[in-house]
Design goal:
43% of the residues lie in helices and 24% in strands. By secondary structure, it is of the alpha/beta class. It folds into three domains: 3-86, Orthogonal Bundle (Arc Repressor Mutant, subunit A); 92-163 and 270-292, D-Maltodextrin-Binding Protein, domain 2, CATH 3.40.190.10; 165-267, D-Maltodextrin-Binding Protein, domain 2, CATH 3.40.190. Strands 3, 4, 5, 6, 9, 10 and 11 form a seven-stranded mixed beta sheet that branches. β7 (194-198), α8 and β8 (220-226) form a beta-alpha-beta unit. α1 (3-15) packs across α4 (59-86).
Length: 294
Amino acid sequence: MQFQQLQYFVAVAETRHFTRAAEAVHVAQPSLSQQIKALERELGADLFLRARGNITLTDAGEALLPLARRILADADTARHEVLELLQLRSGRVRLGATPSLCTGLLPDVLRAFHDRYPGVRLLIEESGSHDLVRELARGALDLALVVLPLPTPSPALTTVELLREDLVVVSSPEADPPGGGRQTVRVADLEGERLVMFRHGYDLRELTVAACRVEGFEPDFAVEGGEMDAVLGFVRAGLGVAVVPRMVAARAGHGLRVTPLAQPGLQRTIALAHRSDVAPPRAARELQRMLLER
């Protein structure tokens, strides 16, 4: 039983005329008649009574008609849903990002994407790069914004460098400025400062601690274990200073003093990652394009 045969059958059932049915479905009348006969042979029953030009449905035809209409309607619905998805009227994007990128980079890009494609659902997974790589590999995410180098490089993932971002030192305006109030701060100036530090597994924690050790000292933590919002809040409260991405500091608003790091400073490389063996869905590819063109 072919979809086309059901379409021809419904056309004849509704017009009660083979010629008019052929015109309705834009096919030659002999071809339509042949397909109807083939359908009847397959079903083992006549679908129409043909008497002196009067076309009526048999019992078998009456039984098939509502089923055929439903099949055609379901196919039409499927066609429209796929078309809407291809035109980005619906669908979803499962995007993973580190907490600092959720705070600094993503809000403006996601707003622009949502304004352009309001029917596409955005599902955001906020976690560290290590966890995001694992979620990508098992197919739970379409895209992920990660910090390079990856904790566990994998040929199963494709990464495209998105940007390089400077890190800055943030402190409370009420506290003594780090580095004696100079316009820039060296990593070495953080020796003796109480640091507000992110939790273990956080890319910024590992980068900051490694930079301090290169300068020959172990950082002193006033408080540790927080996510980005908590770290910024603790700094505002005067508990210590923190090293954060420039974009995060720019969006953090009032209540923070921002001091750049002296050259060569500290930077981090942000990349967009996806599985190598599966192309991201259409909506995810469009978000990927917007991120790369930002």
